[in-house]
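Prompt: I keep going back and forth on a fold encoding question. Comparing notes only helps if you start from a blank page. Show me how you would write down a chain together with its backbone fold. Please set it down just below, with no commentary around it:
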Amino acid sequence: MSEEIQLSSADFEEDRYSRLRLIPWWDQERLKNATIMVVGAGAIGNELIKNLTLLGIGRILIYDMDSIENTNLTRSVLYRAKDVGRYKAEVAAERAREMNPDVKAKAFIANIIDDVGLGVFRRMDVVLGGLDNREARLSINQSCYKVDRPWIDGAIEALNGFARVFIPGQGACYECTMTETDWMLINKRKSCALLTHEQMASGKIPTTPTSSSIIAGIQVQEMLKLLHADRNLPTLAGKGYVFNGLTHDSYVVEYQCKEDCMSHDTYEKIVEKAWSVKTVTLKEILEEIRGELGERAVVDFDRDIATRATCSCGETKELFTLVHKLKGHMLTCPKCGAQMTFDSMHSVRGNEDFLDRTPAEIGIPPLHIICGRVGMNAVYYEFTADESDIFENL
């Protein structure tokens, strides 16, 4: 009997993932070949990245703009005291690579609302959110729907939390779940805990490492099901898992899909172009699109771009930045100090005096997707030449 056991043990060659492969439906190659985006490298983000790394996810793109503070050390497993002051995304990516050499993790110090091209979302298998901001969630939701990609939202407050799965065409999206209060708070730029951005920057969001572990675990578990979609595993698509840490009650809610939801906009046809936002000019883009669609074609952007500011004293100055990024000081007249008004645009029609500018110079991020349109007929074009920069070392 002992000899038989020894033989069977010798025949079974264990590796890092051998216990995972014991799960009947598991396919480790899918995880190795998967590309996952993590937005937010705080308490939830740390747990998401830790779980993805342990599972052997092949490529992890980590997006966060903030630096590590002392308050992060009680809620973030990847950070050490020596890391205070460094960017969260960079440290999280380093720790992931240290934990598992099979994983390629890359940090991006970027604003998910303005600085991430739709082509990046298009290359993701799943997007995972660990955010404390409704506006950023709404932006992720819209980006994922435009390029038909699933995303999984997680949120915590004190001992409570929830995880929600949003898949285009399968039930409600994030915007469908939003109430009038949510919209009011977005307009006031409030966080989920009803705190201002200044308070958020001071580390005053009430969270614990225990609730973040639970919610991130659910998020990654749902991601695994999506990566094994052909196994017909039940998912939370259009639903939310709610956890009450005080009583340890948990339940699943199903959200109502709104047929007229503005986020349900999916790009039908995307053409990959050998363009880079850093080198091709707006004039060259317009000429090439008109060569394909006709002389009446215009170029549409999915964002408003502030072009110039004008003061009542006659002073003008160029802006060429996203309206979303405008700050008060940018609209202060350098001549008289009065408040200036600004012009904005979201289309190029060919008569502009700034057609020699590149998309990057007017606020279009790398690997983004723009629209060529004639009337209601639209074709979408991707700046595919930027792909190598985004995915370098991945």
